[in-house]
Structure formats: C-alpha cells, structure tokens
Specification:
The protein is mainly beta. It has one helix at 2-17, and strands at 39-50, 64-75, 80-95, 98-116, 121-140, 143-165, 168-179, 194-205. The chain is built from 1 helix and 8 strands.
Length: 206
Amino acid sequence: MKKTIVMMLAAMAPAWAGEPVVVATPAPVAAAASQVCPWSCELGVSYSWASTDIIDGIDGNHAQTVGVDLTACYSLNENDMLNIRFGYGWGDANNWGGSQHFHTWTLMPGYRYTCKLDDEWSIYAGVNVGVAAVAYKEHYDGWKAHCSAWGFAYSAEVGVRYALSPDTELFLGYIFSGNTAEPSEDDWSCEAQNNHGIRGGVAVKF
C-alpha cells in the first residue's frame, strides 16, 4: 500500500511543480516591399539645325535653334513610359544685314520605350505630339515685322541613358522636331519649321 501511494505521488509531482508553458509565436510577416514611385522629371537642352527655309519662297536662310524643356514622366513598367513635355526654343538667323528670330513654345504628351543594356546603360526611343505657339520677328534698317501662329507640334527621339545612381540619369540623343505653324504678314509667310538636332540633360526620379 505504501509503495502504491509513493508511486502515485511521484506521478503527480510534475503537475504540482508546474509544467513550462509553451507560447506559440506567430511566424514573422515579411515586410511589404517598398513601392517605387513611377514619377520622374527631366530637364533637357537642345541645339537644332533647320531643314526648311525661314520665309516661304526665299531659299538659303535657315534658323539654328537653342531649346530647353521640362518633362514629367510616368513609368508604366520597366520599359514603357508616358510623359508630357513643355518646351521653349529660340531660333535666329542673320541675313542681308538684318536679323530674324523664332520663339517657339510647345506642349506635347508622348510615349517612350527604354531597353536596359546593363545596370548603368540603356537605350531609348520616343515620340511626342501636341501644340506649338510660334512668334516670328525680323529687323532690317529700322523696318520691323512681328507675327505669330499656332500649329501642330511633333518630335521623335532616339538616344542613350547613363545611370549615375538609382535615382539620377544622364541622357543624350538625336531628335527630329517641328511644327506646322506658319506666321504670316499680308504679302509673305514663314515656312513651317522642322529641325534635326541633339538633346541632352538629366533625369531625376522621385
């Protein structure tokens, strides 16, 4: 009898002493991947050579244009991008002892395709279409003319890009651009201008 009681007490001892409580710990939840902002901004400068004459019917006078633009870009994925570009160009020529000037403002939405070559280099091609406002001025020995017009604006561009960091890129490319605006006076009109040029600048991601 004593032996039986001793065995029962021995069996109940762990319960009296208390068993260690095992607390189930939930598996750690992986942190959500940080969202990459699709927006970026470009500041570009360009220099272009006109392939059309300034005045309709007068051969040999072409305007060279210096331009600057600000482009807001929205990436759809790694390759495809939508953008909208506001640009200004100043073109001039000096002929027959006088001066001729173009002021061109453009607003053009567009599309660009980019192909990465490695972690730093990529190539791209894009098109933009929109509207242009063109003002033309000329001065000859005290005689002045000033006229303006609206038109359809367009550009096509191919080039290369180099990543300085994950958020900053440099770019340089060939651009063909033009518009259909033809500022005119009573007896003459400007030709619709189109240009071959180079465009470069910097792009910054938000």
